[in-house]
Amino acid sequence: MARLDGRIAVVTGAGIGQGRSTALRLAQEGAKVLAVDVSGAEKDTAAQAPDQIEPVHADVTRGDEVQALVAEAVGRHGRLDILCNVVGVAGIAQAPVPDIDEDDYDRLLTVNLKSVFLGMKHAIPAMVASGGGSIINWSSVGALVSSPQTAVYGASKAGILAMTRAAAREWGKANIRVNAICPGFVYPTGMTLMGEREFPEAVSRAASKSALDRPGHPDEIAAVAAFLASSDASYVTGTYLVVDGGWTAG
Ligand SMILES: NC(=O)c1ccc[n+]([C@@H]2O[C@H](COP(=O)([O-])OP(=O)(O)OC[C@H]3O[C@@H](n4cnc5c(N)ncnc54)[C@H](O)[C@@H]3O)[C@@H](O)[C@H]2O)c1
Q1: Which alpha helices (H) appear in 16-150, and where do they start and end?
Q2: Can 187 be counted among the known catalytic residues?
Q3: Which CATH class is domain 8-244?
Q4: Hey, is 243 helix, strand or coil?
Q5: Is the Cβ atom of 196 under 6 angstroms away from ligand 1?
Q6: Are 134 and 233 spatial neighbours (Cβ–Cβ below 8 Å)?
Q7: Beta bridge partners of 9
Q8: Which residue CA neighbors atom 39 of ligand 1 most closely?
């Protein structure tokens, strides 16, 4: 029997990068997956495992769309066990603090932090009704260490850790575990391919920060997500796993 047989999962940002890898990995381990994205690429992900993965086109910064996709998971499968809040963007509001545009601040916080709030807001009641669940929120090493021009990105990712801990404390008695992953530099993904096009040197510098002297692969993050989703992690909640190849050990 596969580790996630019978589990129903929602994975956001599943069109490319870590979300795509996570959707495929959860499906490979037996889960039925709703692969959510706003780009249209969720259909390509679902085509890789059509019996296990259903594409859902939704904007996870919109409460009504997040509510509808949770309702679709429950309507179709009768339950919800796993939520992976992967969606995140970088490269917006990337400037010294006085130069950050207010609209860019709002946009980055909305995509990175409000999406996690909305995912948990709508998934938790469905998980309570299902007898429990596992929520995994994508933070970043950017929540733990800093560099210039990352104030807002770092704040969004640190906010995710605070929300993760609070939700874990609130919902543990309902058998809902809530954890975060802090990836280091992961390649290739939509975000890092774009970074490579715009700042090729910065990307190779980021990769060399890891003790392993290479970027992480999206599949290596997906493997950790599958662990957190599974009952192998049954006593893990309210924390974050740093998956950075040893970057922050330095
Ligand atoms: N790539 C890295 O090096 C790295 C490092 C640390 C943390 N992270 C975090 O990991 C997560 C995944 O990163 P990635 O590089 O794999 O991402 P990615 O850029 O490859 O993919 C993000 C996906 O999210 C989708 N998306 C964006 N906004 C959306 C919205 N409003 N509604 C629905 N879908 C939306 C995009 O269409 C895209 O398919 C992000 O939260 C990111 O901040 C990434």
Answers
A1: 17-28, 42-47, 63-77, 102-109, 115-130
A2: no
A3: alpha beta
A4: strand
A5: no
A6: yes
A7: 33, 82
A8: 15
